[in-house]
């Protein structure tokens, strides 16, 4: 079997996934074994939501069949077992991203994680003024004159919470622009990120452009300015090896449903010294030490940010998903998806009237490609592909400012994962090649 060497392999050569092994992997995913409009399903929408292997489905089912109980609240046998598997799942996810146990907070999804950080920071000044959180929290409070920096390619989930934080605190929101090929203007990043920057938030990999951003370089700029660095890892955590400590970010978020896990579960990573001083996002049971009729005292992280009944079965299933990815090998997955992404882009670029967003063929990208078909609306392209059993995403992909910058209102996006073959990509390309003729564009 051929081998490939990439920075992610950490000085060792690893076997590359091939179609034969991917077909074996595909058998673990029951939803993929069906016909859509009389054609075998080609699922190329994993950038929105991935499918679940049987090990993940069974992990959640087994919890309900054998251990269903509230965690942290009971002394009976089921409650103890439920708490054990719930916290074991947290430890698994912490290891999956190179974090510590207490730095790993369960959320509903990445969007909630980003809102948690934004909301907590907006309350920092109030808490500090009341003597809560200490001098360290006072240093995190935003005020007029401070700046929050994002990028022009952000998903709305990593843009709107910062817009609202700026509104609540009087801070100014700025953004790092992109080149026409989607890459960040790093020269402008160095000029924009400065002494007034309090938060720098950016995506690891763009859900539209497929581009992988220079995380460590951006983090270095942010930390040199004294800013908190927030990473949106939704399109990276499921697809390539991720170590938040090596990347040197202060916070990171990602969602389970993009990495083989169920919906309704996500993760916030935060450096423990930051999580332990931030005001909580949701308040209520399970996140307190002492409550009187006048006030409450809160637990340290991670429980500090986990009020109420938790997403127990989803957390167990997410740990099973992380184990599945780890056992398959994230370096292998990344290499395979990168090859599929190159195949998609090269094929799309060869079709007359098709414009591909992001890096050209031959340049690094994750395994997705968003494109515009001249004279045909993206929704029509998506329906045409669906008629041939091919599932893709259409619309602005929650990135309206990015599409506006590129002169578009909507695109079609194909996104691959570890269960896609080269035949899936070739069927997709053959279908796209027939779009303009079908619509007489």
UniProtKB/TrEMBL annotation:
This is Cysteine desulfurase. It is an enzyme of class 2 (transferase). Pfam families: Aminotran_5 (PF00266). Catalyzes the removal of elemental sulfur and selenium atoms from L-cysteine, L-cystine, L-selenocysteine, and L-selenocystine to produce L-alanine. It catalyses: (sulfur carrier)-H + L-cysteine = (sulfur carrier)-SH + L-alanine. Its EC number is 2.8.1.7. Residues 42-428 form the Aminotransferase class V domain. NCBIfam families: sufS. Belongs to the class-V pyridoxal-phosphate-dependent aminotransferase family. Csd subfamily. InterPro entries: Aminotrans_V_dom, Aminotrans_V_PyrdxlP_BS, Cys_dSase_SufS, PyrdxlP-dep_Trfase, PyrdxlP-dep_Trfase_major, PyrdxlP-dep_Trfase_small. The gene is csd. The lineage of its organism: Bacteria, Bacillati, Actinomycetota, Actinomycetes, Micrococcales. It comes from the Bacteria. Keywords: Pyridoxal phosphate, Transferase. CDD domains: SufS_like. PANTHER family: CYSTEINE DESULFURASE, CYSTEINE DESULFURASE 1, CHLOROPLASTIC. Its cofactor is pyridoxal 5'-phosphate.
């Amino acid at each position: 079997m051929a081998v490939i060497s990439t920075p992610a392999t950490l000085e060792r050569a690893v076997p590359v996934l091939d179609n034969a092994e991917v077909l074996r992997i595909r058998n673990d995913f029951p939803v993929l074994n069906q016909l859509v409009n009389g054609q075998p399903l080609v699922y190329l929408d994993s950038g929105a939501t991935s499918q679940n292997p049987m090990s993940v489905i069974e992990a959640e089912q087994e919890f309900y069949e054998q251990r269903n109980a509230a965690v942290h609240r009971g002394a009976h046998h089921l409650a103890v077992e439920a708490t054990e598997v719930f916290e074991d799942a947290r430890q698994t996810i912490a290891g999956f991203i190179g974090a510590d146990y207490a730095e790993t907070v369960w959320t509903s999804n990445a969007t909630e994680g980003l809102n948690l950080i934004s909301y907590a920071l907006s309350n920092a000044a109030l808490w500090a003024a009341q003597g809560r959180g200490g001098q360290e929290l006072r240093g995190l409070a935003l005020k007029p004159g401070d700046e929050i920096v994002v990028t022009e390619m952000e998903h709305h989930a990593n843009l709107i919470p910062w817009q609202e934080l700026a509104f609540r605190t009087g801070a100014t929101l700025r953004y790092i622009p992109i080149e026409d090929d989607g890459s960040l203007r790093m020269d402008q990043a160095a000029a924009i990120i400065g002494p007034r920057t309090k938060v720098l938030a950016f995506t690891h990999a763009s859900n539209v452009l497929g581009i992988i951003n220079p995380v460590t370089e951006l983090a270095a700029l942010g930390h040199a300015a004294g800013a908190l660095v927030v990473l949106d890892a939704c399109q990276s955590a499921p697809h390539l090896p991720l170590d938040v400590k090596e990347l040197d970010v202060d916070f990171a978020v990602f969602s389970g449903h993009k990495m083989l896990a169920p919906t309704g579960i996500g993760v916030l990573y935060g450096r423990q010294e930051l999580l332990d001083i931030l005001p909580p996002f949701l308040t209520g049971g399970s996140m307190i030490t002492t409550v009187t009729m006048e006030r409450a005292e809160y637990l340290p992280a991670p429980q500090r940010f986990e009020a109420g009944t938790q997403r127990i079965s989803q957390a167990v299933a997410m740990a099973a998903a992380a184990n599945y990815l780890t056992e398959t090998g994230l370096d292998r997955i990344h290499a395979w998806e990168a090859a599929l992404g190159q195949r998609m882009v090269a094929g799309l670029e060869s079709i007359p009237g098709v414009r591909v967003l992001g890096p050209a063929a031959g340049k690094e990208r994750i395994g997705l490609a968003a494109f515009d078909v001249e004279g045909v609306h993206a929704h029509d392209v998506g329906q045409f592909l669906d008629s041939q059993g091919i599932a893709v995403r259409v619309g602005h992909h929650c990135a309206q400012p990015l599409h506006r910058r590129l002169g578009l209102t909507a695109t079609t996006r194909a996104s691959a994962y570890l269960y896609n073959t080269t035949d899936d990509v070739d069927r997709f390309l053959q279908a796209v090649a027939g779009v303009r003729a079908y619509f007489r564009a």
